[in-house]
Amino acid sequence: MSDESVEILGKVTTGSYHIVEKYYNLKRQLLNLSKLHMSDMYAPVGQITRKYSYQEALGLIKDADEKFYPEFKDVIENMVKLNHIDVTPRKGKNRGAFCANGKLKHYPFVFVNYANTFDSVRELAHELGHAFHFYYIQRDQNFINIDISLVIAEIASVFNEILTFDYLMNTDLSKEEKISLLCDFIESKFATSHRQNAFYRFEKYIHDLIEKKLPTTEEIKEAFVKEMELMFGNSISKIKEDYANFCFVVQHFLQVPFYVYAYNMSNLLVISIYQLYLEQREKFVPKYLKLLSVGSSFSPEEMLSEIGINLNDPSFWEKGIKYLSDKIDELEKLVENS
To answer: How many angstroms separate the CA atoms of 155 and 288, rounded?
Structure first.
């Protein structure tokens, strides 16, 4: 990725910090707290208690995918017939979830431990999104070009998550369940986009400072707190007292410097692409399929420009911010009507 696109992404994300502040002030209200602290940042708002069997989850995901592009449903059904989806928790089975591409020109494999929860539905949708990506790359590319770059790797998985999320929000969930679902969704996106952007800005500042002098422990902590306070605004109290030391336990800062920008880029990229789909609907589908099929035959910027996306255009990244902002407005309306 070019330095220019990374910087433009950062400026757009930083310029949208007000939606983070708005959300966490709303969360404080939902938790009925006079003040919100960093320890409350990921506290759950309600819970989704209903259970989804594996067959119900598969049906939900297939319905959501079929509305987008009918062949997605066919891919899932063929993977089921081939026993390429392993979902049963059992003794000796490893934990976690992943998708493996399998042999060239064949269907991929999905591995999850399905537990009948909403999180399991989301996890299954995520891995099946990876499966779509592998399927179209292997169908259209040769062995040399089947790799996926870090920036593009999560496009299909997160896109499929969002498709399933929006589909679920239109089912017979109660108002309380929808509030819980929205909070969980919004927080997960902030954690991967805005929070990682704040980390990136902190890293940049510290590396620039190191070129001039060796910063003290207090200077490092102050720089970190400054970025956190900029992002959360007035929504979270006592950030300095509760969170300053956290900058010393983020392994990426030491082990993989400047890795964190990629979280924001890949996450906001797919949300912006999804917003593009909401604006263009069926006209967007062929572009998306083309994006899934190119593998590593183009650089990320080249493959995105092929479908009309310019990563140096702030208005593209602002589409992702609009989607998140709309979700916060949707949450606010549900809260007002509770």
So the answer is: 10
Read off the pLDDT of each residue in 42-49 and give the average, rounded to a whole number.
89
Cβ(34)–Cβ(25) under 8 Å? no
62 and 205 inside one domain: no
Answer yes or no: pTM beyond 0.90. yes
Looking at residue 326, its amino acid is: D
SS3 111: strand
Amino acid at 308: G
Number of structural domains in the chain = 2
Sign of CA dihedral 186, 188, 191, 194: negative
- Report the C-alpha gap between 22 and 25 in whole angstroms: 5
Q: What CATH number is given to the structural domain containing 135?
A: 3.40.390
Helix (H) or strand (E) holding 98: strand 98-100
pLDDT band of 30, cuts 50, 70, 90: very high
Cα–Cα distance, 179 to 156 (Å, whole number): 26
Closest CA to 296 of 156, 138, 157: 138
Q: For 113-171, what is each residue's pLDDT tens digit?
A: 999 999 999 999 999 999 999 999 999 888 888 788 777 888 999 999 999 999 999 99
Query: Of 143, 172, 201, which one is at a domain's C-terminal end?
Result: 172
Partner residues linked to 85 by β-bridges = 110
Report d(CA 57, CA 161) in Å as an integer.
Answer: 12
